[in-house]
Design a protein that fits this description.
heterodimer; A: alpha/beta; Rossmann fold; seven-stranded mixed beta sheet; 9 helices; B: Rossmann fold; two-stranded antiparallel ribbon; 12 helices; oxidoreductase (chain B); THDP-binding (chain B)
């Protein structure tokens, strides 16, 4: 099953099981079913609870917060994750703060889904990975879709968390298969973290969210074959608050598609330094896209976005010198 | 769509209970400015001096099952709904018994179906969501949102009004049009009119002047009943902000301040009904004095964040 189909199936199951769950977004009705077809079929089955909206990201997110305040659940689709910036006030100042700013805990069960990332030529305002802009907001949890995490379970975790959540969905994942790892690598999941590994003791650990996992795996394969560098990949489902057991290794890398500057990876690196500084050979290395807008032309976009070759190059340089 | 309640030359006599509540809010706000002046309060606050009659007028039009969304200038809205100066002052002073543990302070209060927040216009989309829930789960209920004329500069207002009208949500927007947004007069911050903006969305608009509460309720009652059936309404109260925006930040000219004072309901009402005002004002002030003394003596509020 492909990631998009898994997401769609998860939404169908959720809507089926939870009569208090709403799905809101622009152009989510059938036959269109959302710009990336993740909501396909939902409005036909649940016409009362799948609401197509005006182009109003702030209001849609606020409506979801109102439903959550009333004890309902809501999933919002932002057509392109870039537009979550238009909902930033509702997320940061209302939904997330409402969890705690009234003195007692107010559960806010809502998820804002954000298709993100480049590689498809959509240009500067439709290709960003805005995860970093949402890191560190009290009461707001960030998740990212990965091929190794069952989306139904991730949605259930988010909706029962009692805090608003943003789910980032790298667009290049939609057409990729779920759970696929080629030999000699194996994958297993513990808690919310998927681990892709070899039986050998790893030379390094790579932490990367789901959207770049396949690029990291390609780099891990070439590093193994060409350099005999053994790497373990950790793919957390929840990006923030971040928590993962880092296997013993002397080098740690964080890979993400966000452009450089104030990244999620910097937050991960800080945590790893706090916990494991004594066993590391050096600082955690951040690998990300260039500090740049995302160009539209394919050759220019390739220069900016992080890819398997860049991951390979940086890891080889750090480990081999 | 627009209706006008003319100012009565000699204000009609108010019910004792209504006047007491209006005077309680007045006394509470004056006490806050006094406490600030003496350095006894943290941060800032926005008093509703001059606007006390608006939430009191709305009181009987709203039921306990309705949701009320207030804003940065919300003490009157809270007191009109709960008549709880102790809890509110404890919240503002960070003392035991604070409604929200002292976390929210003056601008961020939640109790039962009452909620305030400090970002202009932010609550309108949220109220739309709550109204969507009410429409389906508790038909006949409504969400009432208090905003000011300055809030009409925010895009969230229009996104929400569009959805409220499209989905026929039971939302009542009460506008306290005091003619000034912090220090910016309406002529500098608003093109056109509030009624015109409501009309753009096909939403009904009622213009309310004066403070004849019985007349206001009689006029708004049927319109609020229609809100409950899914016909949203913008009720615009023409009012005056007597005090500064927050503590001491009033840049209005002496003449403008004089005009605000001349428009104040209390001065005009006192001229016509001095005995009633004197009697009830004394009671309200005595109550607030006692509350302030008692609350100030309480230990600090406690809060565990998780």
């Amino acid at each position: 099953m492909r990631v998009a189909e898994d997401l769609n199936a998860a939404l169908h199951r959720l809507m089926d099981h939870d009569p208090g769950l709403y799905v809101l977004g622009e152009d989510v009705l059938d036959p269109y079913g959302g710009a990336f077809k993740i909501t396909r079929g939902l409005s036909t089955r649940f016409p009362d609870r799948v609401l197509t909206t005006p182009i109003s990201e702030s209001a849609i997110t606020g409506v979801a917060a109102g439903l959550a305040l009333s004890g309902d659940r809501a999933i919002v689709e932002i057509m392109f994750g870039d537009f979550a910036a238009l909902a930033f006030d509702q997320l940061m100042n209302f939904a997330a703060k409402s969890v705690s700013m009234y003195g007692t805990r107010v559960p806010m069960r809502m998820v804002v889904r954000c298709p993100v990332g480049g590689g498809r030529g959509y240009g500067p305002t439709h290709s960003q990975s805005p995860q970093k802009h949402f890191v560190g907001i009290p009461g707001l949890a960030l998740y990212e879709v990965s091929p190794f995490h069952d989306n139904l379970a991730v949605f259930e975790e988010m909706l029962w968390r009692g805090e608003p959540c943003v789910l980032f969905e790298d667009k290049v994942l939609y057409t990729r298969p779920m759970h696929a790892v080629e030999p000699p690598f194996s994958v297993e999941r513990a808690g919310g973290v998927a681990r892709v590994f070899l039986d050998d003791q790893p030379d390094c650990v790579i932490v990367a969210p789901g959207g770049v996992a396949h690029r990291v795996l390609a780099a891990m394969r070439s590093l193994l074959l060409e350099e005999e560098i053994v790497a373990t990949l950790l793919v957390p489902s929840r990006l923030y608050p971040f928590d993962a057991d880092i296997p013993a290794a002397r080098r740690v890398f964080v890979v993400e598609e966000s452009t450089g500057g104030g990244t999620w990876g910097a937050e991960v690196a800080h945590l790893v330094h706090q916990r494991h500084w004594d066993r590391l050979d050096g600082p955690v290395t951040l690998i990300h896209s260039a500090d740049s807008v995302i160009p539209t032309a394919a050759h220019l976009e390739r220069e900016v976005l992080v890819d398997a070759a860049a991951i390979h190059r940086v890891i080889r340089k750090v480990i081999r010198g | 769509m627009t209706s006008v309640l003319d100012r009565a030359a000699a204000p009609s006599r108010l019910d004792d209970a209504d006047l007491s509540l209006m005077l309680l809010i007045r006394a509470f706000e004056l006490k806050l400015l006094d406490l600030y002046g003496r350095g006894l309060l943290n941060g800032t606050t926005h008093t509703c001096l001059g606007q006390e009659h608006v939430p009191v007028a709305m009181g009987p039009l709203l039921g306990p099952a309705d949701h009320v969304f207030s804003n940065h200038r919300g003490h009157g809205h809270y007191l009109a709904r709960f008549q709880d100066p102790e809890g509110l002052l404890a919240e503002i002073m960070g003392r035991e018994g604070a409604v929200c543990g002292g976390v929210g302070g003056s601008q961020h209060i939640r109790r039962d179906r009452y909620l305030s927040t400090g970002v202009q216009g932010e609550s309108l989309p949220v109220a739309a969501g709550v109204a969507l829930h009410l429409k389906r789960a508790e038909p006949g209920g409504l969400a009432c949102v208090y905003i000011g004329d300055g809030t009409f500069g925010e895009g969230a207002v229009y996104e929400a009004l569009n959805i409220i009208a499209l989905w026929r949500l039971p939302v009542l927007v009460v506008v306290e049009n005091n003619g000034i947004a912090q220090s910016t007069p309406r002529g500098t911050h608003m093109a056109g009119t509030i009624g015109g903006r409501a009309a753009a969305f096909g939403i009904g608009h009622a213009l309310v002047e004066g403070f004849d509460l019985a007349a206001i309720r009689g006029r708004l009652g049927p319109l609020v009943a229609r809100v409950r059936q899914g016909t949203p309404l913008v009720a615009e109260f023409v009012t005056h902000r007597l005090g500064p925006h927050s503590k001491g930040d009033d840049t209005r000219t002496a003449r403008e301040l004089q005009e605000a004072r001349e428009g104040d309901w209390l001065g005009r009402y006192r001229a016509a009904h001095r005995d009633q005002v004197d009697r009830l004002e004394h009671e309200a002030r005595a109550w607030v004095d006692a509350v302030a003394e008692e609350v100030a003596a309480r230990p600090p509020s406690r809060w565990t964040s998780s």
